[in-house]
């Protein structure tokens, strides 16, 4: 992979990462409800899931996407149902003005990571994107081990650089809220975004 190809690949993945979809909506919802720091594990999980899909495309799982489309439909529906559940939890949560204690945030890291991973993994269009996208930049049949490592590193870096700031920007909204009523409205707005992400995933079959 040349430097020019790598830079172009990085830019294309960055744009793909910040394109509105279920992941971005979930990040906005989490940032608005829990703050920017809580978005980091979600973003890491989403980004690593995308890298896994990229590697799957590299190693030939395009055949699975073609011949086992029913499996991906089931995954998509389960992912949409999970997003609906998260949206419901936000809608019904009690308003609080206190940020989560440090210990609770650390304990919540893996939960956020898993949520992010599942949100991205439940969107089969991600692997279809990579199946169509990768041949534009590289001959998959001629990739070496180092090429795959470089591509995966560029992919992960571009996604994180794109999506983490989205969560922090959403988290800044929370700083200006000072009443339980405002927090309740924010939680319901975040829940609506999460439900919207589920609807987006469910309807784009």
From TrEMBL:
GO MF annotation, one: amino acid transmembrane transporter activity
TM region(s), chain numbering: 6-28, 40-65, 71-91, 112-133, 148-170
Top-level division of the source organism's lineage: Bacteria
Keyword Transmembrane: yes
Annotated localization: Cell membrane
Keyword terms of this UniProt record: Cell membrane, Membrane, Transmembrane, Transmembrane helix
Pfam short name (any one): LysE
Topology within the bilayer: Multi-pass membrane protein
Keyword Transmembrane: yes
UniProt GO cellular component terms: plasma membrane
Protein name per UniProt: LysE family translocator
